[in-house]
Amino acid sequence: MKENSLQTREDASPYPFSYHCIYFSTSVHPDKCKSPTPATFLPYLFYHTFSCTRTSSLWMVRHKGIPSSTVGRNARAPVDGATDRFGFFVTAEEKRMDDECLRVYAEKKSVQNMWSKALTRWDNCPHDRRKELCRLGIPQSQRQTIWPLLLMTYGWKDENCEDYQLLMAQQPQDKSIFDVIERDLGRTFPTHRMFFKANGEGQKKLRRILRTYVNHNPDIGYVQGMGFIAATLLLQIGDEESTFRALVSVMENPKYNLAKLYAPGFPCMFARLYQLQKLLERHYAALFNKLVTYKIELSLFASNWYLTLFSYHLNFRLLSRIWDMFLCEGWKIIHRVAVALLLLHRDAIDGVRDESQLIMALQSAHEGKDEAEILKKALSIKVKTARLLRWEKEFNLLRSNR
């Protein structure tokens, strides 16, 4: 824990972004990878994201006029206090558009009925049927029940988790890790009614969940990005202890294994980026060639997608649809969405003429796209499990030989 606790400390001073530093320390090519730690990598990654968004529309992503539930850490709630269906503060105009979106994308009664039927025979419901239903989308009213079921289904049970109250009462080996959590609380969905108030009930719940996970898994502790994962689960599940158990599952169940994503050196994250690189080579060769030509690493724009499972960038409605599939199928949907965002942005990407233009285009790839179009494109992209496993083994071999 001693080594890891140092790695989780966030730099106090706001460093200006240095592309060459990111390029050097986060190279996705395993033969060059310098195995960055959270202390060296995440402050640059998150500071760059935040500083970029101050001068662009990344603070409030728009999907064809549909208000976004993704917010930046400097965002503030509107005076009138109106919220969208998920509890994020919106303006009166955004509220009108959200209501219109609910009308256009109304949940089908037939889908609700199919889910209700599946729940009555959950243990005997085949995986292919669950996958089919998750791709149709879980009704919002049922995610509170279905997400925990998905998380506890695939070879992982509650006995992997100690008593929540006992864990919460423990003192960490290094109390400074709690300071890192404290600094991130106000940055996590700050325009949601649950988290908007400093030290309000929502922030208290999130604090307890994250601190308890530190005690549960001191080898991982806490790393920036985990707060968005825990907060997304809390917003959908509601109950604090159930959310903690869901967090443990998504971190440690081999199907998801987010703990390895945050492990020192980020080996799993770089493996995911290597897989994304291979997918781009197959599905978007023009972009792959541009990245090679300009020596731009995927980590420059895609690391946040993977570290937060898109929860920092995409609106909560779309995010929930993606997570429905992630919790059922695992990592393939994350890869599919990443490739889909880039393919749907190809007009902007293909038209760039220099390195700086390409970087700006890549960092805005998630903006201004229709949710249905993103999901349709993502599900049309073929991603074979065997290929992903082969590429991961290839990455690990190259990394071990570097």
From TrEMBL:
Domain of life per record: Eukaryota
Listed Pfam families: RabGAP-TBC
Chain ranges of the Rab-GAP TBC domain: 137-330
Gene Ontology MF term list: GTPase activator activity; small GTPase binding
Alphabetical list of InterPro entries matching this protein: Rab-GAP-TBC_dom, Rab-GAP_TBC_sf, Rab_GAP_TBC_domain
Coiled-coil region: none
SUPFAM superfamilies named among the record's database cross-references: Ypt/Rab-GAP domain of gyp1p
Protein name in UniProt: Putative GTPase activating protein
